[in-house]
C-alpha cells in the first residue's frame, strides 16, 4: 500500500492501511473491505503475468481491465 500512503499521507492519518469498513461514494460502492487482501493479491498476480508483454500500454490496459472487473 506504499503508493496510497505516499499520495494521501498528508490528507488521511490512515493512508496506506487496509480499510475495515465498507464504503460508498455517491452511487459507487467500493470493493468489500473483507475482500481487499485477495483483490490486491489478484492484481499483483496480473501485473506479474503481463510483465513480459512488450508494450507498457498493453500491460496497463490488461491490468486496469481486470481491476475494474473486481
Give the secondary structure arrangement, pairings included.
Blueprint: H1 2-8, E1 24-25, E2 28-29, H2 36-50, H3 56-68
Antiparallel strand pairs: 1-2
Key words describing this protein structure:
single chain, 70 residues, mainly alpha, two-stranded antiparallel sheet, globular
Widest sheet: strand ordering: 1-2
% residues in beta strands: 5-15%
* End-to-end CA span: 18 Å
Structural class of the secondary elements?
A: mainly alpha
Q: In total, how many beta strands?
A: 2
Low-pLDDT regions: none
H/E series = HEEHH
So how many helices?
3
Global Rg: 14 Å
Most strands sheet: 2 strands, antiparallel
Helix content: 40-55%
Q: Looking at the structure, what is the overall shape?
A: globular
Query: What is the mean pLDDT?
Result: 83
Compose a concise summary of this entry.
The chain is mainly α. Helices cover 50% and strands 6% of the residues.
Task: Characterize the structure shown.
This protein is 50% helix and 6% strand. The protein contains three helices and two strands; from the N terminus they run αββαα. It has helices at 2-8, 36-50, 56-68; strands spanning 24-25, 28-29. Strands 1-2 form a two-stranded antiparallel sheet. β1 (24-25) and β2 form a beta hairpin. The two termini are 18 Å apart.
Amino acid at each position: 500500500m506504499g503508493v496510497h500512503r505516499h499520495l494521501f499521507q498528508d490528507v488521511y492519518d490512515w493512508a496506506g492501511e487496509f480499510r475495515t469498513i465498507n464504503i460508498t461514494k455517491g452511487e459507487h460502492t467500493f470493493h468489500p473491505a473483507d475482500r481487499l487482501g485477495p483483490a490486491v493479491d489478484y492484481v499483483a498476480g496480473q501485473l506479474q503475468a503481463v510483465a513480459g508483454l512488450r508494450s507498457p500500454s498493453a500491460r496497463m490496459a490488461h491490468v486496469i481491465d481486470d481491476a475494474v472487473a473486481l
